[in-house]
């Protein structure tokens, strides 16, 4: 018994540690970042070198706007293993939110070398490059000045070098594109959108003044850039095996393409063309014309035999959707709702997920438009399992959260706001990150969580400024000032 008791006692610390990590992760997903930090900190007191805990706590600090702490934990996770890709991602994220876009780009590239197919690194590269371009603007319209903290380099006289490098790069974009050698063309085709990243890094490396600098961790920037270039070369070699380029320079097709068109007598194909014409009428502002064409098409489709045209119900559903959209534009919400409901019935009957998603979207939107927020939430929540695309998820979570806010369901609106924010961050969409942060901030304000409210308003303000959205910047700044007054009371 004593031997068993000793063995059990030796296992207890491991069990407690795992529990603390799991609790920290759960609290993070609930948006309780302060409590999650406490849990991770307690776990680190048991295992001071645990990389997972450092990354978890870094993510919490990042959400709370404590970017220096987030960076410190990310670097701690890399202390014994500088190839730990989760730590590299967190370091890149922390540098990005600190405004050190050039260095965040470097570490996104380094992580991509280790995980070439990981979407987070690809998205990080895209948003870092976009931030650099937005920060610099057009060299003809922006006068660059050396301001702020540029302590990326150890020597005082080298602090102006990042600005010099950016000026050099923006001038490069204005130059006439030279003819690309054949081998370079192949590389461009293989790397696709990553080719511009490779050229960006090469331009950084060509700037001798900048490449002599060092990071805060003491690494030579030249080595970091060269490492990232090597990762892209490795990726190029990998892709050349996955999708070889033919002698003509075109990618060979993996599946045969039909070299014929459907005969003009095919009624389904003719109706698809008609649907395009109906949409074009509505897009051009001619709702009456769109409605008339939709009704005419519906009469034709109703004469079809389901045995000869098995897609009859699918086409009818599309037409009911078109009629509903036209009626919505004309202000007849009640009749529009009837047609969208019919679209949903046909889509459900035929088991068409995309059509079901479309109908649920339209029905929810109509209920929200007339202030029936509970019904809007009911239909939009049915749509959630049918949505895969990131932008649509971001929008959907935001709209459901907004409806909850209108109903004074502040905890629900905050939770959906956080879900919208996570989805927006996954696709690096600044506009929807801003919208989601505002929704969370408004919810936290109503809940009396003023510190969290101020944090999210600040993040939204940064994103509004990055987009040069003056109206949003002014509105968010006003809301932030009011939130600060509540905190001081």
Which descriptors would you attach to this protein?
489 residues, mainly alpha, Serine Threonine Protein Phosphatase 5, Tetratricopeptide repeat, globular, disordered N terminus
Structure, described:
The protein is mostly helical. Among the domains are: 15-98, Tetratricopeptide repeat domain (Serine Threonine Protein Phosphatase 5, Tetratricopeptide repeat, Alpha Horseshoe), CATH 1.25.40.10; 112-246, no CATH class; 264-386, Serine Threonine Protein Phosphatase 5, Tetratricopeptide repeat (Alpha Horseshoe). Helix content is 73%, strand content 0%. The protein is built from 23 helices and no strands. The protein has helices at 2-29, 33-46, 51-63, 67-77, 85-97, 101-114, 119-136, 161-174, 182-191, 195-206, 208-211, 221-242, 267-283, 287-301, 312-329, 333-349, 353-369, 373-383, 390-406, 410-426, 430-447, 450-466, 470-488. It is globular and about 75 Å long. The model is unreliable at 1-12, 137-183 and 237-265 (pLDDT under 50).
Distance between the termini: 61 Å
Please tell me the overall pLDDT: 75
Q: What is the number of strand segments? A: 0
Question: What fraction of residues sit in β-strands?
Answer: under 5%
Instruction: Give, in order, the helices and strands.
Output: HHHHHHHHHHHHHHHHHHHHHHH
**Which segments are poorly predicted (pLDDT under 50) over 5 or more consecutive residues?**
1-12, 137-183, 237-265
How many separate helices? 23
Write the layout of secondary structure elements.
Blueprint: H1 2-29, H2 33-46, H3 51-63, H4 67-77, H5 85-97, H6 101-114, H7 119-136, H8 161-174, H9 182-191, H10 195-206, H11 208-211, H12 221-242, H13 267-283, H14 287-301, H15 312-329, H16 333-349, H17 353-369, H18 373-383, H19 390-406, H20 410-426, H21 430-447, H22 450-466, H23 470-488
Helix pairs in contact: 1-2, 1-3, 2-3, 3-4, 3-5, 4-5, 5-6, 5-7, 6-7, 6-12, 10-12, 13-14, 13-15, 14-15, 15-16, 15-17, 16-17, 17-18, 18-19, 19-20, 19-21, 20-21, 21-22, 22-23
């Amino acid at each position: 018994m004593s031997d068993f008791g000793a063995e059990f006692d030796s296992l207890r610390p491991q069990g407690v540690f795992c529990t603390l990590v799991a609790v920290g992760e759960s609290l993070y997903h609930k948006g309780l970042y302060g409590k999650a930090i406490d849990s991770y900190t307690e776990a680190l007191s048991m295992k001071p070198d645990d990389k997972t805990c450092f990354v978890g706590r870094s993510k919490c600090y990042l959400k709370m706007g404590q970017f220096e702490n987030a960076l410190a934990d990310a670097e701690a996770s890399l202390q014994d293993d500088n190839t730990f890709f989760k730590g590299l991602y967190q370091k890149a994220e922390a540098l990005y939110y600190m405004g050190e876009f050039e260095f965040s780009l470097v570490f996104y590239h380094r992580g991509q070398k280790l995980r070439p197919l990981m979407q987070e690194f690809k998205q990080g590269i895209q948003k870092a490059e976009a931030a650099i371009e937005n920060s610099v603007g057009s060299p003809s319209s922006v006068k660059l000045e050396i301001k702020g903290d540029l302590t990326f380099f150890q020597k005082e006289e080298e602090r102006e070098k990042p600005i010099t490098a950016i000026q050099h790069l923006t001038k490069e974009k204005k130059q006439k594109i030279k003819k690309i050698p054949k081998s370079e063309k192949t590389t461009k085709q293989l790397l696709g959108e990553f080719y511009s990243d490779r050229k960006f890094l090469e331009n950084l490396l060509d700037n001798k003044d900048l490449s002599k600098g060092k990071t805060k961790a003491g690494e030579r920037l030249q080595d970091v850039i060269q490492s990232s270039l090597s990762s892209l070369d490795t990726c190029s070699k990998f892709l050349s095996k996955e999708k070889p380029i033919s002698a003509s320079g075109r990618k060979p097709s993996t599946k045969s393409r039909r070299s014929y068109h459907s005969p003009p007598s095919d009624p389904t194909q003719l109706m698809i063309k008609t649907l395009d014409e109906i949409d074009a009428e509505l897009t051009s502002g001619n709702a009456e014309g769109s409605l008339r064409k939709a009704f005419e098409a519906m009469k034709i489709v109703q004469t079809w035999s389901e045995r000869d045209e098995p897609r009859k119900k699918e086409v009818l559903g599309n037409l009911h959707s078109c009629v509903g959209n036209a009626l919505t534009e004309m202000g007849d919400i009640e009749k529009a709702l009837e047609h969208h409901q019919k679209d949903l019935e046909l889509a459900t009957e035929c088991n068409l997920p995309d059509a079901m998603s479309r109908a649920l979207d339209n029905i929810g939107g109509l209920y929200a438009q007339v202030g029936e927020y509970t019904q809007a939430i009911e239909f939009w929540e049915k749509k959630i399992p049918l949505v895969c695309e990131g932008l649509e998820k971001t929008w959907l979570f935001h709209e459901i959260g907004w409806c909850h806010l209108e109903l004074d369901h502040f905890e629900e609106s905050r939770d959906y706001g956080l879900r919208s924010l996570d989805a927006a961050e996954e696709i690096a969409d600044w506009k929807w990150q801003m919208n989601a942060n505002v929704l969370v901030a408004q919810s936290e304000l109503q809940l009396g969580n003023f510190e969290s409210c101020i944090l999210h308003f600040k993040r939204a303000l940064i994103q509004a400024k990055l987009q040069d959205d003056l109206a949003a910047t002014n509105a968010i700044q006003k809301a932030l000032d009011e939130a600060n007054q509540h905190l001081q009371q």
